[in-house]
Write a sequence for this structure.
């Protein structure tokens, strides 16, 4: 049974997600659709890219549809690509949304511009490419259509890559324990020179707090702030026996700067 995963900023209050499901199933009735999330903050390409990157390793290889598209109807390309590892196919706007997930699976080795794909629905709405372009292309690929026939050939090196400042992070959410999930991963901070056990400064809204980059809560004293890799391999902040959300006084999308203490 072919798998199509679906991530977007559509939310669930409207019919957008359901209509896209219908398009996919109308073309590939045997597809199994896995909704990763439709709760990405509207137009937040960065959060969508990071969520896609961290979630796809837990999804079966297949076609991965992602739509966070603030420039829908403008000059941005619409693309489908194949990754080097696990032969995964990603479909979505070429605005950086697919770039981190593609890199996680060895990078893109084949890509096509699907803006004028033979698989698109006609007429194509200027504002709902999820329905008229991305969903039908994903469905046809899931049904076995060759990637090369889905659009015009595109050099993978021309795909837009997300610019990611390794030391500036944003709050993706908090849990009931007050742990704060960030839009960064362990590999990104180690690439920036941080190592486990390093003392770091966390700057937020003009305040600076000290934390330890460690493996778990117990690696710091009670009430100590710890920067750690959570169960989704995403960096988070926690206070041992306390609440990082309260200590930092941050909400969704708050920006923090993490730097080594000097």
């Amino acid at each position: 049974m072919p798998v199509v995963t679906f991530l977007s900023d559509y939310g669930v209050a409207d019919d957008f997600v359901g209509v896209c499901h219908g398009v996919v199933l109308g073309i590939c009735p045997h597809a199994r659709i896995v909704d990763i999330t439709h709760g990405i903050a509207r137009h937040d390409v960065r959060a969508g890219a990071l969520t896609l990157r961290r979630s796809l390793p837990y999804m079966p290889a297949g076609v991965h549809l992602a739509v966070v598209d603030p420039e829908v109807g403008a000059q941005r390309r619409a693309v489908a690509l194949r990754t080097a590892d696990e032969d995964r196919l990603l479909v979505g706007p070429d605005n950086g949304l697919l770039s981190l997930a593609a890199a996680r699976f060895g990078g893109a080795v084949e890509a096509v511009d699907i803006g004028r794909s033979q698989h698109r629905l006609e007429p194509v709405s200027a504002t709902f490419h999820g329905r008229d372009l991305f969903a039908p292309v994903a469905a046809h690929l899931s049904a076995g259509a060759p990637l090369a026939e889905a659009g015009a050939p595109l050099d993978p090196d021309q795909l837009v890559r997300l610019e990611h400042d390794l030391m500036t992070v944003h709050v993706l959410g908090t849990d009931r324990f007050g742990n704060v999930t960030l839009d960064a991963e362990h590999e990104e901070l180690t690439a920036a020179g941080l190592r486990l056990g390093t003392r770091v400064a966390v700057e937020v809204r003009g305040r600076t707090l000290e934390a330890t980059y460690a493996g778990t809560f117990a690696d710091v004293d009670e009430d100590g702030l710890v920067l750690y890799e959570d169960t989704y391999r995403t960096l988070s902040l926690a206070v041992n026996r306390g609440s990082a959300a309260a200590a930092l006084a941050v909400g969704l999308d708050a920006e923090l700067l993490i730097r080594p203490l000097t």
